[in-house]
Amino acid sequence: MINILFAAATERWDQYQGPLKKELDLKGIDYKLAKKLPASEVDYIIYAPNSSIKDFSVFTNLKAVLNLWAGVEDVVKNKTLKVPLARMVDKGLTQGMKEWVLGHVMRHHLGIDLHIFGQDGQWRDWSTPLLASERTITILGLGALGAECANTLAKIGFKVRGWSLTKKSIDNVACYHGFDGLEKSLFGSEIVVLLLPSTTDTENIINQKTISFLSKNAIIINPGRGTLIDEKALLKSLDDGKIAHATLDVFRQEPLPADHLFWRHAKITVTPHIASETKPSTASQVIATNIDRFEKGKPLLYQVNLDAGY
Ligand code: NDP
């Protein structure tokens, strides 16, 4: 019998306990799943970084932590974590991110705002949109989410570039990697989508210098993390017209304070960290698979490199 502790907000337990039990049963795992268990008896923790558990050292027989979120920046910093950590890669989460990115890209690509906010009697027949094949989009981060978004945008016909740490190959996407590839991936790009994790290496990756590589009137779409953007540089570039608009889903401080300038900036759209979330039915399959693998001596899927921070 293995003991699995579910450590997340109370409403999550209501959403997850049914799907988790179903998937664990399907794997034939002999388990006890609960919100409270004696610390020394816990084998696995299904973990949301906003749970009250901050000290993993009390779980003396812990085998692994299975994160419910794709982002692990708050967990990797926890020095009490001494066991393998898996981040969440979930097809429901990925599908949600593809849809969110596609929607916000299309808003800017088609110039939809001009008409939504332009119901004033002016016949703007000069505003026929470009074709996707005439538009260059760069995705920073080609992981579980970035690669799928790049693929989706490429299938529609956009000229898609992507950037990652290590070399990648994705059909119809010009892939760049490493520090040297960053400028090439951004040069002349009209829309940039940020799907990098928050690490010391990615902090302020969008700054005055990297913004200068972009096309004039470029669009920045950030569903990644707030730390990816140097806010002062962004505001300056919006004010001087280098950047036409920024759509931001994630922030250094969340919830974004009600008096934050971003809320009232005419060239910024704020969405409240809703780009996509882990879906209980599909995420439970991933968690059950990972527990089953680990019990059989196989490595976890989507194991985080604690040193790299993602
Ligand atoms: P992955 O870990 O699968 O992918 C991360 C990508 O970033 C990889 O391609 C990686 O390169 C690249 N990368 C990391 N560090 C660097 C670096 N220093 N230089 C260049 N490339 C780098 O993450 P996911 O795709 O699953 O998720 C991405 C992020 O999206 C999450 O970390 C989270 O912050 C955010 N997110 C936001 C949500 C929202 O609702 N707003 C929902 C879910 C996630 P390589 O492939 O070479 O390792």
What key phrases describe this protein's structure?
binds NADPH dihydro-nicotinamide-adenine-dinucleotide phosphate; 310 residues; single chain; 10 helices; alpha/beta
Can you describe this structure?
About 35% of the residues lie in helices and about 15% in strands. It has about 300 residues and is an alpha/beta fold. It has a seven-stranded parallel beta sheet with strand order 8-7-6-9-10-11-12. A five-stranded parallel beta sheet has the order 2-1-3-4-5, covered by helices on one side. The chain is elongated.
Unreliable runs:
none
Enumerate the distinct ligands. NADPH dihydro-nicotinamide-adenine-dinucleotide phosphate
Helix content, binned percent: 25-40%
DSSP strand tally: 12
Structural class by helix and strand composition: alpha/beta
Q: What is the mean predicted local confidence, pLDDT?
A: 98
Range of strand content: 15-25%
- List the strand order in the largest sheet: 8-7-6-9-10-11-12
Oligomeric state of the chains?
single chain
**Roughly how many Å is the radius of gyration?**
21 Å
